[in-house]
Write a structure and sequence with these properties.
Number of helices: 0
Strand order of the largest sheet: 1-4-7-10-13-16
Shape: globular
Number of strands: 17
Order of helices and strands: EEEEEEEEEEEEEEEEE
Distance between the termini: 48 Å
Helix content: under 10%
Length: about 170
């Protein structure tokens, strides 16, 4: 194993389906995903200060848990989220988004059929191999220093298709 390699105990990767939940006015986020095989669907998330959904291990400071892999986020309504994080959904190699790892930390993340209302931006992603952002509706996105709806860096195999920006 090379120095700096990312290792995790795969027996600690629970699969989870989060569905039909309502999360309102949380000071941080609705969901932090650090596992494989997760699904977030049919949820109503509003008023989170940070990203409504964060997919990020913490591999540069706390060394907590594992990268997000094989995750689907679908058919959710996300409203007024991410003012403190500049995005409604954040994917990266660390919670603080200051670790600069290649595109192979997180894998196979699908974000489809969601509605974003009054968020600064819809998605900020880094260090993902296999990212799909499709058939989402983005309503009234705004932010003082943000001029994008979807932003990604250090990603590979990215598909952004058939989204509506209103």
């Amino acid at each position: 194993i090379k120095e700096g390699a990312i290792m995790a105990n795969k027996t600690m990767h629970p699969t989870v389906t989060i569905s039909n939940c309502t999360v309102k006015s949380n000071r941080a986020r609705a969901f932090l995903l650090q596992t494989e095989g997760a699904v977030v669907k049919n949820c109503d998330i509003s008023g989170t200060r940070l990203a409504a959904i964060l997919i990020a291990p913490d591999i540069n400071y706390w060394y907590e848990m594992s990268p997000g892999r094989d995750i689907t986020i679908t058919d959710n309504v996300i409203t007024n989220c991410g003012k403190g994080a500049s995005t409604a959904i954040a994917i990266d190699a660390s919670h603080d988004m200051n670790a600069f790892y290649s595109a192979d930390v997180n894998r196979n993340i699908v974000i489809k059929n969601n509605t974003f209302n009054n968020c600064v931006s819809a998605l900020k992603a880094a260090s993902v191999n296999g990212l799909e952002f499709s058939n989402n509706t983005l309503n009234r996105l705004s932010g003082e220093n943000v001029s994008y709806a979807v932003n990604y860096t250090r990603c590979a195999n990215v598909t952004i298709d058939t989204n509506k920006l209103n």
